[in-house]
Write a structure and sequence with these properties.
It is built from 11 helices and 10 strands. It is an alpha/beta fold and 311 residues long.
Length: 311
């Protein structure tokens, strides 16, 4: 990684791990430790916010330059010059997270029991930046995590179906981000660096029903771009191909570098998110089972009850 890029990331409070990985404390880690507020993923799926390690093995490698992305995109790459070993990445990521949360212990508001638990993460969100499936040893990485009793969530943009098909083991929960109803919107909103990104996303959606893990389709909704009611039928068709256990409809947030490309008017209200989710659920015969207005997100489920990781 170039020194200039590393300085940018460190200024944004990323912990750099090896040649291409990174860790950053989630907003909800702080909220959980200091104010006993939980992430929507804790509400929906039962993971513990303060025990979650938010990281990526592909800090500067991505094949999209999405307009709504809050990350710095000036160093986007599609390939790795050096490949770090999975066990090294996990060990160093945990070590880096411990350093990042050190200061919380001295804060009077900090729940000391939670802080002790936070030093022993049992949940890993492989989603922080870049496209994680570009890391060729991702299956080995998840295997090590699972052997250590760490639950894994993977968020992918869906442009690497061959990697997902070969991934062994699979993460405990697989998110595919579908942020456009059709190819035209996809090319404008995601600014793909590959020519066949949309076709690969369709392949991923068709692959999803055969994967033996919990699957989630996440629709990041941007007002004025991808949540027109006219798009519901197209989203319905895409989601029907994937037949995921869950669907998240989540609002874009006007933060980070996305402010250079978007305006605050592109941030939908929770009411609009809920209306979108309601309409999509009816078209798919799913049920809107949960919502978190503070995160502008609703959860659609195939089943009335959602299986939780804390049960």
């Amino acid at each position: 990684m170039k020194q200039e890029f590393q300085k940018i990331l460190e200024k944004q409070h990323y912990g750099i791990v090896g040649n291409h990985s990174g860790v950053k404390l989630c907003h909800w880690m702080r909220q959980s430790l200091l104010y006993n507020r939980e992430c929507y993923k804790q509400s929906f799926y039962g993971i513990k916010s303060h025990r979650c390690l938010q990281m990526t093995p592909s800090l500067i490698q991505c094949n999209h330059m999405c307009l709504f992305c809050w990350r710095h995109q000036g160093f986007t790459e599609k390939e790795f010059n050096v490949i770090d070993e999975p066990e090294y990445i996990l060990d160093k990521s945990i070590e880096t997270q411990k350093k990042l949360i050190t200061g919380f212990k001295g804060d009077k508001r900090c729940d000391k029991k939670k802080w002790e638990e936070a030093n022993k993460p049992n949940m890993l969100a492989c989603s922080l930046s870049g496209e994680p499936t570009l890391y060729t040893k991702l299956g080995e990485f998840f295997e090590i995590c699972h052997k250590r009793g760490i639950t894994t969530f993977l968020v992918s943009n869906g442009t690497n179906p061959k990697a997902l098909e070969k991934l062994d083991p699979l993460p405990k929960q697989l998110y595919i981000s579908i942020v456009a109803p059709n190819k035209e919107v996809y090319k404008k909103l995601c600014s793909p660096l590959i020519s066949d990104g949309w076709e690969k996303i369709i392949q991923t959606l068709e692959l999803l029903p055969s994967l033996d893990t919990r699957t989630v389709i996440r629709h990041t909704l941007v007002e004025g771009w991808n949540m027109n009611s006219d798009y519901i039928k197209e989203y319905t068709s895409l989601d029907d191909k994937a037949s995921p256990l869950f669907i998240e409809a989540k609002g874009y947030v006007f933060v980070g570098y996305s402010r250079k490309r978007m305006t605050i008017s592109n941030m939908p209200s929770h009411n609009n998110i809920r209306n979108f989710g309601d309409e999509l659920a009816k078209n798919l015969s799913y049920e809107l089972t949960m919502e978190r207005p503070d995160s502008r997100v609703v959860l659609l489920s195939k089943e009335v009850k959602t299986e939780r990781f804390d049960k």
